[in-house]
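User: My instructor asked us to take a sequence, write out its structure as tokens, and then describe one feature of it. I'm not sure where to start. Here is the sequence I was given:
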Amino acid sequence: MKITDRGQVEVNDHMQTTAPNVYAIGDVVRGAMLAHKAEEEGVMVAEILAGQKPHIDYNLIPNVIYTWPEVAAVGKTEEQLKSAGINYKSGQFPMRALGRSRASGDLDGFVKILADATTDEVLGVHMIGARAADLIAEAVTAMEFRASAEDIARMSHSHPTYAEAVKEAALAATGDRALHM
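Assistant: Let's start with the prediction itself. The structure tokens for your sequence are:
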């Protein structure tokens, strides 16, 4: 097997090493050191071995930091969009404006949605707050199906929940229409 200058196992796009019939996934290969990334890579290798044609979109692997409040993100950052020359819009909603946050006393944080300025496709979602590790799954799902901020804004979200912040951020990204601001 070939090892990179960073001490990682070199693999191709199918997670195959330079050694015949040897695959590597997870922390020993390029990319984020996340259990759910390793799981997706493991599933991909199993599907390849079964003769299927899987893929992984690493842009849609969420990054979560299990602090309090939790931090979670998926997709592109504003810095990445700027350096790629992508025209985008942003909508943000503070957790402290949610009834659920106020009732639980978890007031810190926000949800930010970055969407293409022309197509409204969601390009990145970033959040800090209670249950962000769980809430990011909604953003991953939306982005997997190339949803627009308007698509998220039109979905009914239970009240009172932390998830309402995702809807509110989507409303803020589409004409600054947040309801609870």
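For the description part of your assignment, you could build on this observation: The longest helix spans residues 35-49. Try explaining in your own words what that tells you about the chain.
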